[in-house]
Amino acid sequence: MEFSIRKAELSDAEAIADLYLQFWESHEGVDPLLEFENNLTLDNQIESAKKIIKKPSNNVFVADLNGKVIGVIEFLIKKNDDCFKIKEYGYINLATTDKEHRGKGVARALTNTALQFLKDKGIKYVRTNVYNSNEIAMKTWTKLGFKPQSTFLFKEIK
Length: 158
Description:
CATH superfamily: Gcn5-related N-acetyltransferase (GNAT)
Radius of gyration: 16 Å
Strand content: 15-25%
Largest sheet: 5 strands, mixed
Structural class: alpha+beta
Helix content: 25-40%
CATH architecture: 3-Layer(aba) Sandwich
């Protein structure tokens, strides 16, 4: 399978929205703070994709297989609080591959593109956030060289 990685365009918004829906499907029931009922529609995800693509601080790249978007990665450069010696770091906000194309190196290629982009900007560290229960994502990020650094703890107050 030969695909290419390119910067996302507004014309990719619907295909990216389809990937968002797949991404969020795997998060249902994972976090009680996430609300999915009536909130995830193709239309509102298309609008979300357009906003993210247009926002100058965001970087969105897609994996393209013969004109079909089969993967997406969104990342940005974040400023650290003053107490940190590293003042800026890369943050991968979202990365997902179409269900039919998982396990074929798409996530690796997208991540490598993001890492090279960030490196070219002088960034030396990159973070992402993964739910502990998302075993597939944890395995994928670990294979890509990411290491667990911290854990967010959560408690419902009753």
